[in-house]
Amino acid sequence: MHRPNPRIGLLNIGEEAGKGNDLVKDAYKLLSNAPINFVGNIESRELLEGPADVIVADGFSGNMVLKSIEGTAISLMKLLKETLGGSLYTKVLTGLMYGKLKAVKQHMDTSAYGGALLFGLAAPIIKVHGSAKSEAVYTAIKQAQILIDEDVVGIIEHTFHEKHYDWLNSKA
């Protein structure tokens, strides 16, 4: 939020315009012709590097990517814990690196991010994982409050009517 011209990317299996299934190819055509800052296809391996501010995906693919990232983060944290908890030497090193390791853990903690934002016509929807803990639900509620307080749906509606209405109607 708070980006005047957000970079919009499309989740795909490759960067090239001709890649993907029919749905993704059609979405690419629509997005590339839309009056937005479309940066093209984004592969899932690039998502955490920040090539786009918003990623467009169908629900199935987006959910698969999110669950894969979440599983990788959990596995990595378990591996670090097992590796650094063995000998006295690694325990001392872990103690010296505690602040840095804690920062990594907090950065990878999915509950700190709440849920995935889905924008409906009347209100924002925040999808929280079924196994989410109370902190994730709390963060999602805070996200919803921010979206409501800042009238994000109203801003999107106004922007579409002001800048994109003619373009959208030409595609109908």
Automatic annotation (TrEMBL):
It comes from the Bacteria. Keywords: Acyltransferase, Cytoplasm, Lipid biosynthesis, Lipid metabolism, Phospholipid biosynthesis, Phospholipid metabolism, Transferase. Its main location: cytoplasm. GO terms for cellular component: cytoplasm. It is an enzyme of class 2 (transferase). GO terms for biological process: fatty acid biosynthetic process; phospholipid biosynthetic process. Its EC number is 2.3.1.274. It catalyses: a fatty acyl-[ACP] + phosphate = an acyl phosphate + holo-[ACP]. It is found in: Cytoplasm. Belongs to the PlsX family. This is Phosphate acyltransferase.
